[in-house]
Amino acid sequence: MKRNYWIKIIISFVLLALLSGCWDSRDINYRSTPILMGVTKDEDLYHVYLIIPVSVVSEQRNLAKVDGKGATIVDAIEQIKKKIETTIDLEHIGFVVLGEELGREGIGKIINTFMRMRDMPATPTVAFTQEDMDSYIDQMIETFQKVGVPIFGFLEKQAGWEIYNPEVSLWQVYRGIHSYTSDIAIPIISSNENLEMDYFGASVLKNGKIVETLDALEVLLMNLLNNEENVIKTFITIDETTDVELVERDVEYDYKYNGDQIDLTIKLEFVMIVAEAEDHLNDEDIQKKFEEKVEKDTLQLVKKLQDKHADVLGISNRIRKNYTHNELKNFLNETYPNINVKVEVEAVIENNGKIRNLNNDDFEDWDKQKQD
Amino acid sequence: MDFINQIEDLKQKNKDLQMKSVIIKGIPYDVVGFESLVDFSATWEMVETLVRHEEEKSSEPNSLHSKETSWKKMEFNKQIKTLYEGKVIIWNREKEMSLIIDPVSQPLYRSIEVPVNETTIYGAKDAFTENSQQNIGLLRSKYQSKDVEVITTQHGKRNRRFSFLILKGTTEEHMVEMIKKKIEDYPNEIKQVKDIHVAFGFSKFSLITRVNSTELPENAMEYIEQGKIVFFMDGYPFALVLFNTVFDVFKQPSDSNYLSAFVYSLYLLRIVGIMIAVLLPGLYVALITINPEMLKVQLALSITESRQFVPYPAFIEIIIMLLLIELITEAAVRLPLSISNTIGVVGGIILGQAIVEASLVSGVLIIIIAATTIANGIIVNFENGITLRLMKYIIVVFSAMFGILGHVIGLLVLCSYIARITSFGVPYVRWKKEGIQSENQ
């Protein structure tokens, strides 16, 4: 009995060791972990670039560029794998840059491939670039060597882009392409002489193709409407002389059905701080100017998107539950453009900058109270 | 053969046996005892007064005399046996009767000292010694009540004494009886604690000590009050505590001398320490070899950098390093205190530095090993620390085979192993604070 028991244990341990296949795994120093992938098309062939951090002991961390061409993306990656000795581990890719011309042709297939690939995470940030990919990547590496850290900054969620940037993940793009009721805007970025990254705005995708481009302010409004969490340190320029900083914002969508017609009122509430203003303006002026400007711009943005039948603001998503599956299929083309949108903005100035402003009536009020 | 001749015979074989003659009030007496056990010069006076006193008293009624300290005729073998226990026989040649007395013994036992293995900052500073009578005395002085009872038994050729402490109303007495019987029935000699394990019927290859040792009377008393069974083995300077539980790994009674808030954070710290000691090496292997994608990219790059020229897989690397640390630890225990410090410096600092510079192991691993070794020291009892030291290897092996998944499987295996351990029907993992009574029939 006793002997039998030990034999069982030994056999199970041998099986455990054999089944594990642990001799096939490679240690971390035999793996390359690219952090950025660039994809363009080069005469029918996909051209894939990878930026791989190269670390040599006692030297500064460096970046290396590798590229490969292939009929498909996987083929191109295979070409890269042939070039380097270490295993390529796509798990750490934090950033996917696509050439803008791909966006015009449609990126649906590429995104599908990425989602299918098992060693590619669904979380990297996706962006378009209008520049030549090769020089863009070179520029990135050069800036890194000059400045140091920046490229890793994109992998840090906290240090990410500000509200001007519609930061989107791969899975969000996939969702945007395949959802009946929502689309996605992907940021356009570029390398720059001074700044390592510069954004021009965002491209609105519909069914994987670029249909419209938004500028920086429109992207900001989009983020404000989309309930992006962080509004702190967001500055909005009202005109050449006036600037406010947002402290808090609240968005409410109010849908009303009038027969076939849908009336939507978007109520925006802001709490803000005056950051820069001419002396002759008092709080109410600034407030009024701000309200007018935001209302106008928002309305304009909504109209612009409705014309292109693309919904990146989530307007249709919020009433999606009221429609059947069949109705949703053509929702963006039929119902969405006909929604009557009204924007109401309400702004409160919390603080006008802690400077003595003679035009403000603070002291008069105080005097009046005293007299009473 | 009369008594004197027999003693003379014995004297031939044992050179330390002394027989001295003295004449008190005209009656010759012989005082017999082992010189190595008895301090004769101090005993002498005692013998004289005792004998004189006895002579006077002998006219008084017999009932006043206790059984043991009275003149009587005894079998020779019985008398000899008492000699070996360190007593002295006073032989009356005329009446051919003997008196057995407890003499002043040689200072064979060390005095009560400060604990060496279990140091406390705030708490009683006395520690058990090799003399179990002294140990029982220490406990009695801490619990001055008639509720404390002591049962003893002797076992084997060595005549080794086992003393069990019973606290009336708390200790399960039939349990003590059963354990006592197990010791009495054990056919072989009980030499070390391992033999007690075997006598109790526990597996020799168990990873967990069922019989805990503690050096502090304060802790022992606390354990008795919790319903655990505390007993002493003569010559073993620790109290043996039966029913080691999982809580004893991170709790010790003298903790309660601190602020409560601090005590709870201390428990938390110890639990974290246990986690680090058991899991960290395995986690390293799993993350480096099989699942690097779980690391943050910056961390992955730092580790890659530090592992740049390491020629073998992480599993071999960590085994080498763990082995080295075990060697250092063991060497430090074996060597005299003054030299063991040198071992610490040479092993820890110089070797650690050199091995990284020679690219035999990565710098990150040194940190991991250091953290593991330090965390292992936070565990309350040294025996529990050994348990965790062994468990860590199981986790490392599983992690090397299946990565993070194996890490979790290894933990699961250990948890199920711990969960099935019982001693005399009392589970090792017990939530109940108070004791053993109700759970065990």
Any overview of this molecule?
The complex is a heterodimer of chains A (372) and B (441). By secondary structure, chain A is of the alpha/beta class. Chain A folds into two domains: 26-214, no CATH class; 227-372, GMP Synthetase, Chain A, domain 3. Helix content of chain A is 35%, strand content 30%. Chain A has helices spanning 2-20, 73-83, 100-105, 108-116, 133-147, 150-153, 170-178, 216-225, 283-307, 315-318, 325-329, 331-334, 362-371; strands spanning 31-32, 36-42, 45-54, 62-70, 87-88, 95-99, 125-129, 184-190, 198-206, 209-214, 234-237, 243-258, 261-276, 340-351. In chain A, helix 4 (108-116) packs across helix 7 (170-178). Chain A is globular. By secondary structure, chain B is of the alpha+beta class. Chain B has three domains: 3-101, no CATH class; 132-243, no CATH class; 266-423, no CATH class. Chain B has a five-stranded antiparallel β-sheet with strand order 5-6-8-9-7, with helices on both faces. A four-stranded antiparallel β-sheet of chain B has the order 1-2-3-4, sandwiched between helices. In chain B, helix 4 (132-142) crosses helix 7 (217-225). The longest helix of chain B is centred in the C-terminal third of the chain and has 38 residues, at 382-419. The radius of gyration of chain B is 29 Å and the shape is elongated. Mean pLDDT of chain B is 83; it is low at 434-441. The chains are: A alpha/beta (372), B alpha+beta (441). Chain B: Pfam families: GerA. Chain B: The chain crosses the membrane at residues 229-250, 262-290, 310-328, 335-355, 361-382, 394-419. Chain B: Keywords: Membrane, Transmembrane, Transmembrane helix. Chain B: One of its GO terms (cellular component) is plasma membrane. Chain B: It is found in: Cell membrane; Membrane.
Q: Total number of helical segments of chain A?
A: 13
Mean pLDDT across residues of chain B: 83
Sequence stretches where pLDDT stays below 50 over 5 or more residues of chain B? 434-441
Strand order within the widest sheet of chain A? 4-3-2-6-7-8-9-10
Shape of chain A: globular
Topology, number of strands of chain B: 11
Share in β-strands of chain B: 5-15%
Unreliable segments of chain A (pLDDT under 50, ≥5 consecutive)? none
The global form of chain B is elongated
How many domains of chain B?
3
Please provide the ordered H/E string of secondary-structure elements of chain B: HEEHHEEHEEHHEHEEHHHHHHEE
Taking the sheet with the most strands of chain B, its summary is: 5 strands, antiparallel
Query: How many structural domains in the coordinates of chain A?
Result: 2
Transmembrane segments (chain B): 229-250, 262-290, 310-328, 335-355, 361-382, 394-419
InterPro entries (chain B): Spore_Ger, UPF0353/GerABKA_families
Keywords (chain B): Membrane, Transmembrane, Transmembrane helix
Family (chain B): Belongs to the GerABKA family.
